[in-house]
Amino acid sequence: MSSITNVGLLALLLCALPPTSRAETKTAKLRTVVIDAGHGGSNHGAPGLASVDEKRVTLELAKAVAAELSRRQITVVMTRTDDNFLTLRQRSDIANRLDADLFVSIHANASRDHSRRGFETFVLGQKGIEVDAPALRAGSGRQRPGVSENLSRMLDDLERGLAQTKSIALATQVQAALAKVRPNSKDRGVKQDSMHVLLGATMPAVLVEVGFIDHPVEGPELSRADVQAAIAGALADAIEISLR
Q1: Closest CA to 163 of 199, 203, 109, 222
Q2: What are the φ and ψ backbone dihedral angles of 88, each rounded to 5 degrees?
Q3: Do 87 and 168 meet the contact criterion of CB atoms below 8 Å apart?
Q4: How many angstroms from the chain centroid is the CA of residue 230?
Q5: For 236, which of 68, 89, 106, 179 could close a Cys bridge (C-beta 3.0–4.6 Å)?
């Protein structure tokens, strides 16, 4: 379905909403970002060097990004603030309940031969938007008082499609910002895939792999305070630009 068709259909569906729901749509809170620290609890994520697991690095980075955005007067909610387990669905549900403007999930990568390095950012591919999200995330969209379940699902699907352009723009900004602060790493580009943590989100959403935690050089760097501060600043820059 083309974006023009999506926009037209969305307009028709919005007209079908009760007056209170349309008013809530117009007055949705602006500049609210949900930062998701990947993994946590029993889910350690990718194993790094010296017993440094992905879940620890992502939490430290998420806290740093949240602090930086808060200094810029941007409302931030973290999906987790300690070492606890959340399902992938619970993470995007938090963003949907808040009617957030952006959802950013932070991760660290790993490879079989421990030789790869670099950063990359994922957005949902077309299959994720049109097939996987509706199949796996039914009932996990935004809260819409007074709206039937079927209509709410249709609106969720349309919002995912309409958010795709902004998701790609955010991912592009993330890559550009990280390239400035990580010149010795590798820009692996923006990629599309059915990343499960993104499937439920009805707003622009990206998953960023900030580097390879198992690389002999890049892995230890990702645990350094100065490197984490630089990455956090870059992610905050990209997010702030995307909120304008």
Answers
A1: 203
A2: -65, -35
A3: no
A4: 19
A5: 68
> Could you tell me which residues come within 8 angstroms of residue 21 by beta carbon, excluding any fewer than 6 positions away?
144, 145, 146, 147
The whole domain housing 201 covers 3-9+20-242
Q: What is the rounded CA–CA span in Å between residue 33 and residue 95?
A: 8
40's tokens: 């946590």
What tokens appear for 237 in the block? Answer: 């820059």
14 is a domain residue? no
Tokens of 177: 């910002």
Distance CA 16, CA 100 (A): 23
Residue 128's pLDDT band (cuts 50, 70, 90): low
Number of folded domains that form the chain = 1
The gap between the terminal CA atoms of the chain, to the nearest Å, is 27
Residue 224, in any domain of the structure? yes
CATH number for 232 = 3.40.630.40
d(CA 104, CA 222): 18
> How does DSSP classify residue 132?
I
- Give dist(CA 9, CA 220) in Å, integer: 50
Burial of 6 (0-12, 13-18, 19+ CB in 10 A): middle
Q: Please write the tens of the pLDDT for every residue from 87-112.
A: 999 999 999 999 999 999 999 999 99
Q: Is residue 85 part of a domain?
A: yes
Token pair of 86 as six digits: 């959340």
Q: What is the pLDDT of residues 178-202, one digit of tens each?
A: 999 999 999 999 999 989 899 888 8
CA 208 → CA 153, 231, 240, distances in Å?
27, 11, 16
* Structure confidence at residue 52 (pLDDT): 87
Q: How many helices (H) and strands (E) are present in the chain, helices listed first?
A: 10, 6
